[in-house]
Amino acid sequence: MALKFNRNLGGTLFSAVAIASFFLYASAALGGGKGGLLGGWSRITDTKDSKVVEIGKFAVDQYNEESKSEYKSKLVFKRVVKGETQVVAGTNYRLVISATDGARRSRRGNKYLAEVWDKPWENFRNLTSFKKL
Description:
Blueprint: H1 7-29, E1 41-43, H2 50-66, E2 75-88, E3 90-101, E4 110-119, E5 124-132
């Protein structure tokens, strides 16, 4: 017994695969799934995660180190308010950080946007941007 190939079935099958592929690609491009689009920014859901806090403290410490001045007081890290990560050759972190001015006794911190590039397998971490919001 031989199977006969139905041309209409082949065309229908091709159409179904093409449509399914399109929806799968569109879902990934719009951030569907767990990781989102490769190379795109993904929201950090746990800003209290030890790695995220470590990166936030590093950003404030590095900013203090780079902006040494006898007239400038140091910032004191309070917390990470929100953030995103981007997987590239390592991980980029874009964090909104709450920090207080060390010279002022204010409980309310100012917000800063910090970007840090981290490559832990090379023991490399770099503050690429830090600005007051």
